[in-house]
Write a structure and sequence with these properties.
The longest helix has 4 residues. Helices cover 3% and strands 40% of the residues. With 428 residues, it is an all-beta fold. The strands form six sheets. Strands 19, 20, 21, 22, 23, 24, 25, 26, 27 and 28 form a ten-stranded mixed beta sheet that branches. Strands 1, 3, 5, 6, 9 and 10 form a six-stranded mixed beta sheet that branches. Strands 2-4-8-7 form a four-stranded antiparallel beta sheet, with no helix packed on it. The protein contains three helices and 30 strands.
Length: 428
């Protein structure tokens, strides 16, 4: 949920949590979402030809020299004809109303042809890979995958930007006493020397994300100052609530090997199908000193160390989590990260075990390197609080990106006219 201004970016009939059964076009959600329980391990990223390319966000310049790739698995089925469509969206993620010919050179129906069966895995699946076609204009795009019969399987957001304006970001002054050691101030200016912005105080919308997440993105509908003579918009924030919590480095586990215990793994049971993986017991980090541990900003990387080619050789395993807690928290506890699409899904909910004095849960996950948080959800609709178990530190390494939208007079679509990414306390 966007923190301010664009909090209604998802129409009311689209709000909610969790995975559902197959959905039809009438219930399409304009967000990253999985509609069918057979769909797993979705990745949407900018391809760069490196092993770590899957960690890249689904963001690319309008030149589109490097494509956006979509990959996912479908469990317990044979190969099927799946169709991909692209929808151009406004800054608040509703359909822009543009005709398809205004943003695509092709008919808006693409079949996924790169299809592979899993190889010698205990849990059979089909792996799909799709290269997103080039688009004509900048903006927000929703990638929709459906069965040939029409049922929606998944949707993914991607961004295409122009370099029409220049975004200059910097680390801001420390927040006040309530956020000095837990929040990370970022300020930025937008320079539009060579781009004719009309009424920028009203027509420019800016969104800032932490680690490319949408669930806690902040929206700024007006600049703090407009410097017409310098053709500059200034965004300066004075309240701690306007800054992101730094949180902590992500917790990590590694199941790319099932013969040896990887990072964070307590034991592996090969006698079961699916394989059972027990992670080391976690504990709350609230109040603990900052720990400088390497992570991937909440993302994940699939792989198989024994046979390679994790796309089709990686098996699925039940991964069991345990969070020690002397008493039950006032709210539901969830796993949070790319492994849950940054959503509070029912599959990622943990239950409190009084005898163990711990929260217990498990997820069916493909072999890989994973990052995760524990988050507390209080009132319905409230943002999940990861700081409850993870703590929050000014020193944590995070990535912030800034999205600048503008709707030219007389047009029906928001263009993404500027983009900038800044590393905050990057150490790795």
């Amino acid at each position: 949920m966007l923190a301010t201004g664009l909090s209604a970016c998802v129409p009311l009939e689209q709000q909610g949590q969790g995975y559902g059964s197959s959905a039809t076009q009438a219930t399409l959600r304009y967000e990253d979402y999985v509609y069918d329980e057979s769909i797993r391990s979705v990745q949407c990223y900018r391809a760069t030809g490196t092993p770590e390319e899957v960690l890249n966000p689904a963001v690319l310049p309008l030149s589109q020299e490097q494509p956006i790739m979509l990959e996912f698995d479908r469990l317990n089925t044979g190969p099927q004809r799946l169709i991909v469509k692209l929808h151009h969206c406004s800054a608040d993620w509703v359909p822009s109303g543009l005709n398809v010919t205004q943003y695509l050179n092709d008919f808006n129906e693409f079949f996924i042809t790169d299809v592979q069966n899993s190889v010698s895995t205990r849990v059979p699946y089909v792996h799909y890979t799709f290269r997103v076609p080039r688009v004509k204009i900048s903006g927000n795009y929703l990638l929709q995958v459906t069965e040939e019969g029409g049922n929606v399987l998944l949707t993914r957001r991607l961004l295409v930007y122009e370099n029409a304006v220049t975004v200059a970001a910097k680390l801001g002054a420390p927040a006040g006493p309530s956020g000095r050691f837990s929040r990370q101030p970022v300020e930025f200016n937008i320079f539009y020397k060579d781009f004719p912005l009309v009424n920028p105080a009203q027509e420019v919308k800016v969104i800032m994300r932490q680690n490319h997440r949408w669930d806690n993105a902040k929206a700024y509908l007006r600049p703090t100052f407009v410097r017409d003579e310098a053709r500059r918009l200034e965004y300066v924030f004075f309240e701690p609530k306007d800054h992101f919590m730094g949180l902590s480095e992500f917790r990590v586990f590694d199941t790319r090997s099932i013969r040896f215990r990887g990072l964070g793994v307590q034991n592996i049971n090969l006698e079961t199908t699916p394989i059972m993986v027990n992670l080391q017991q976690d504990k709350s980090r609230q109040g603990a000193a900052y720990s400088q541990d390497p992570d991937a900003d909440g993302k994940l990387l699939f792989g198989n160390r024994e046979y390679g080619n994790g796309d089709v050789n990686g098996d699925y395993a039940w991964v069991e989590f345990e969070l020690r807690s002397p008493e039950q928290a006032n709210g539901n506890v969830y796993l949070l990260g790319a492994l849950t699409d940054w959503r509070l899904t029912e599959q990622a909910r943990l239950r409190y075990n009084q005898e163990r004095g711990a929260y217990l849960g498990r997820m069916l996950l493909k072999q890989g390197y994973y990052n995760y948080y524990y988050a507390l959800a209080g009132e319905a609709g409230a943002e999940a609080d990861a700081s409850y178990f993870e703590g929050s530190h000014f020193s944590t390494g995070n990535t912030y990106d800034i999205l600048v939208y503008y709707r030219p007079p007389g047009t029906r679509a928001d263009m993404l006219i500027g983009y900038e990414e800044i590393g905050y306390n990057r150490k790795f």
